[in-house]
Amino acid sequence: MDSSRPPEELTPEEAAEELARLAAAIAAADRAYHGEDAPQITDAEYDAMKRRNAALEAAFPELRRPDSPSERVGAPPSSAFSKVRHSMPMLSLENAFAEEEVADFVARIRRFLNLPADEPLAFTAEPKIDGLSLSLRYEDGRLVQAATRGDGTTGENVTANARTLDDIPDEIPDAPALLEVRGEVYMSHEDFAALNARQAETGGRTFANPRNAAAGSLRQLDPSITASRPLRFFAYSWGMVSEPLADTQMGAIERLAGFGLPTNPLTVLCHELEELLAHYRRIEGERANLGYDIDGVVYKLNRLDLQARLGARSATPRWALAHKFPAERATTQLRAIEIQVGRTGALSPIARLAPVTVGGVVVQNATLHNADYIAGRDSRGQPIREGRDIRVGDWVTIYRAGDVIPKIEDVDLSRRPPDAVPYVFPETCPICGSDVVREPGEAVHYCTGNLVCPAQQVEKLKHFVSRNAFDIEGLGAKTIEAFFADGWLREPADIFHLESRHGTELRRREGWGERSAANLFRSIAERRRVPLNRLIFGLGIRHVGETAAKLLARHYGSWERFRTAMEEARDHEGPAWDDLNAIDGVGPTLAASLVDFFHEPANRAAIDRLVAELEIEDVAAPSASGSPLAGKTIVFTGTLERMTRAEAKARAEALGAKVAGSVSSRTDYVVAGPGAGSKEKKARELGLTVLSEEEWLEMAG
Ligand code: AMP
Ligand code: ZN
Predict the structure, then answer these.
(1) Catalytic annotation on 128?
(2) Residue 144 counted as domain residue
(3) Ligand 1 atom with minimal separation from the 267 CA
(4) pLDDT above 90: residue 661
(5) pTM score, two decimals?
(6) Which residues line ligand 1 (CB under 6 A)?
């Protein structure tokens, strides 16, 4: 590698080429190191490559690659840590930006719990720390485990690293026998600046913002490195506990503080909406002087018994809300509009921007949504941005809130170059050349080359191996692209033939070797056994997200039943079709997309080839297997008097039941309150069990 020439002397083409070579070489070295292979290069050589990469990126910021080695978090990939299954999921938070959304949140809670308007309701309000969450497990007062959030169900075991934080006690003498503390690891502004200065001096990697620095520092393979990094911790929540901490959120926070854990001093108790908003404004006012990053204020219902009644949606509790601070903005020039083709064939226009810093992060891409958005109108033809369209060469305001992909807010017409022309959306797929269609009522254009479009095939494969689908470690986006280019992978079934068909070649492939190949084959083999919901999600069918996949898996229970039902529903009518549509959370669009997917012979053949390689785990109704309601299908009708419909439904689901919207022969129970009409009648005709609200409550405990 010719790294002798100063970056200033290189042409952009030469720099781009060298950056590509460096990215590949550093990635290969990372793989060798973390795959526990003997490292193939010395630390000094590795550091030299990283420094050269940083120097080139500094000289050519616009050439910084999406897979830039300096972007990679703290080096260790997730495979480097053992996994921890959380005893209780680590949830995320529902977001709000506008005050009306906060008002809605309070009103929704009142409605759900059916509280009279004059009954007081208290909430805690506290800063939302912009760090990474950590769960600490204390058994008999001793810290035995620390885990990151991961996907919420499974995180990484970072116990040795967490022990190095001064804010985290090793022992809590007066703790309950089991205590799981949850909170946020973060880095102060001052410590962050000092760390970056030190890193720059020694040629180490610098971090884009304190949150990345905190994450990179906690997720170190070598705990002595974590120990050298100034990490802090705030406790704000808990997981499993052997005895309740308190009756209220505030009481529990006070207990945590009493255990010697740091809690945030800006946590207060508020009564009703106005006080929440007032505290929000106060925290927003103090934001710049806090000395650490926060990105909003979190509201939590104070009474824990009410929290329990409200429960959680799939990923967020109903009793908490993150009220985010307004997005940050910047102005930059739009250099190009590129089209990406996704796994379902959707064409997504992406803005390539002159790099600009927004809220501490360098941004060079923004989403442009669809053709209408670029043209300055919404899906109903109404003007947006007062009808101003977006053109290559335009100066645009971009904004970014939290982690979301930046968006373009507006165009400055006074700076539009005279030769700028309106953007013409492609009529054919830029990848496969097939025609592009836009269905009536849809905003998105789709490539029609479903079975021949390489972009769709590659994206489908990436989706298939992704974390919430088959979760195949070691088969990242780049590897999929490389194997696809070589013709090794075309469809998911091919993944399971990799070893038998290309094992020898892979072991000899550049950047691989015995050990990495063996690791990959092992992680593939481990995924031959797969839960039904992951399989359904992994197929990448349009409109079938993770939640829908879970609903379907729970409803049908086994692959055979699911597969047969899809076949039987192919005409969009009949009992199987009705049954599919009766699943709560499945609408007609989803149902049609699903059934049509299975109706396509080429899809069926590909699925059969895949399924032949797998052992599919049936999905039983969740956890509550002991409950008399587990696996049952319930329909509520009429007025309930003791709890709202929403609460009844949430309770039934928590007990493992499915709640359906209409009565069929597959319904197990119909709960009928006063005013029940046709549904109750139908249930009686079908000879189903009809319960009164009292009987239902007894069953639901
Ligand atoms: P999000 O990742 O945007 O869904 O927000 C949820 C995350 O906010 C949680 O997983 C926590 O890591 C983080 N968080 C920061 N401060 C708090 C707080 N005071 N209460 C609850 N969560 C918080
Ligand atoms: Zn295409």
Answers:
(1) yes
(2) yes
(3) 19
(4) no
(5) 0.61
(6) 92-93, 126, 128-129, 133, 149, 184, 236-237, 298, 322, 402
